[in-house]
What does this fold into?
Amino acid sequence: MSAIAEPVVKPTSRFHFIFDRRAVLETVLIAPAIIYVLLLVGLPLLLAIYYSLSAYTIYDPTWKFVGLANFKQILQNPTFLDTLRNTFVFTFGSQLLGLVLGKFGAFLLLQPFPGRKIVRALIILPFAVPVALATIAWQWMFDSLYSVINWTMIAAGILTREEAPNWLGNPYLAMLCIIIINAWRFFPFAIVIFLAGITAVPQDVIDAATVDGAGFWRRNYQIILPMILPIMAIGLIFGIVFTFTDLSIVFLLTMGGPGGATSVLGFAGFQTGIVSGDVAHGAAISLFMLPVLLVVVIFMLRFIRRREI
Amino acid sequence: MPRPAARALRETGFYFGVAFFVILAAFPFYWMVITAFKQNSDLYDVTNIPFWFNEPPTLEHIKYLFEETLFARWLLNSLIIGLCVTAITLVTAVPAGYSLARMTSRKGEALGITIFLTYLVPPTLLFLPLSRIIAELGLQNSMWALVLVYPTFTIPFCSWLLMGFFKALPIEIEEAAIVDGCSLFGAFIKMAIPLSIPAILTVVIFTFTLTLQEFVYALTFVSSSDQKPITLGVTTDLIRGDVFFWGEIMAGALIAAIPVAIAYNLFLDRFIAGITGGAVK
It folds into this structure.
């Protein structure tokens, strides 16, 4: 009977011996991913910082160090300050609108009703479809002459054809348009995040609160909301990062116009660094995103640590 | 008497709310469909009611796309890019996700979070240095530049997704295999991978849709028409000067959007579980 307890002895090569040490195997398995990310995210990030401190252009690829001169020039440029303000307006405007829509949408989708699956599938569409393609559909809806939105308002008698707004030609309306498109793109994401959070709240917690006399609002804002706050925070972080650094909506819809009214950081960095070839200034403009990203990262790390305790 | 009336009122309000959200979300896509199949004379007549066909629908826009533009080529480019990026992502992210899941130390967790955070580093911050690196490598204006660059966001995302999955896989299964004479590496290859086929399938779908959705890198690195992926081609190449070919643009956008929309709907729950990383349990 001793044969059962006998360990199976395999001929081990040196290769096997090394791979059988857990730490070594773990390092070998993760190495390709780390190397890829270091080379194509870490290195470019450092390069971007260096470019912003140099006089590098594609016509004169010099590594000459100029210190903070690029940043100083950019900050003295009033159009850049507008760009910075636009970026904040765009980000927080669209996130706020997206959250409000998401909250109401989730509230509706929480109740069972016939056809709920199909409704959910349709509501997810804006988040699923590539944003560039959706933007081009919206551009057609905001068309100066054939806008379906204007047509509807004219047909409903709200406006006459002379009063019909030129959505992308007016600075304020153009900003409103990019906010609407971005909020439209993110609200399904907010709905799904809310739903995932709410369905994860244990029913007995809600029941207990009801028994203890908590009404509808109290249950919503003092019991459920604090419990879904972590998942909401993560959703919001994604929304803010991807909106703050976005380029595609502005590039396709307004090209920063009219008169720079919708120029955002990503777009300005692209125009200066790629289109004009002034890599140094373009990199400096893009790096203004970094403080926001750092805040987000710190927030996320603290949040993850708190969750563990 | 007031009870049923109040209920009816509330239900009407509820369905109005649902209808509002459905119209808000889906109308642009309805608009794509109707534009893609409308005749030009119908499309550009402001006296027509725009919401339906005033003249018989037509396939001429789709025919034009395939016969007169590089649309088929863009589809092929996107397919090649998607397949190559998926292959690179699987080879690197599956072992990485497994390794992250099995690392017990705090260092392992920190490493996992760091990798995930790189997913948040935006293309608009990296495109300038990357465009110089790509020029150095001689890949400018080629879709292979995208094959090289896209894994920078698919690898972090998929490693994180797979880490969550491997963590849920009981380690006892692998330990049993090791007791039976399997090496550590063998346990990963022969036990962990076959058991994670559903997760790997999810990763394949998401890698593919992420490459289809990407726009910024494609715009920055590729300017020759015949090298463009579908999203870039449809949105930038069907505009001649100031003239927009709306029928063709909408038809192209529709064809490119349908597969992504379907894939997303099928795998949405896994996507949400992936990015929230078990913030709710």
